[in-house]
Design brief:
With 77 residues, the chain is an all-alpha fold. The chain has helices at 3-35, 40-67. It has one domain (3-67). The longest helix is centred in the N-terminal third of the chain and has 33 residues, at 3-35.
Amino acid sequence: MTANSISRFFSVQQAVYGAIMLIIAIMWPVAHIIKGTMNTYGAIFSIAMLAVSIYLWRLAWIDLRNDFKKVQTPNSK
């Protein structure tokens, strides 16, 4: 495996884990609202968790996009 393929693998892994974290950050407060157990601290935590997961997923997406851009060699036209 080359360094480029390893970098791409970890970029994909970060994006997948970021998407999973985002799904959990959305489902967690919805479940507590439906269950009726959401309090003020839980609401603050869920908003913070959602904001952090969106930010980290966005960073992973940028890294993934940069890893899969076509690399031009000096001899290619």
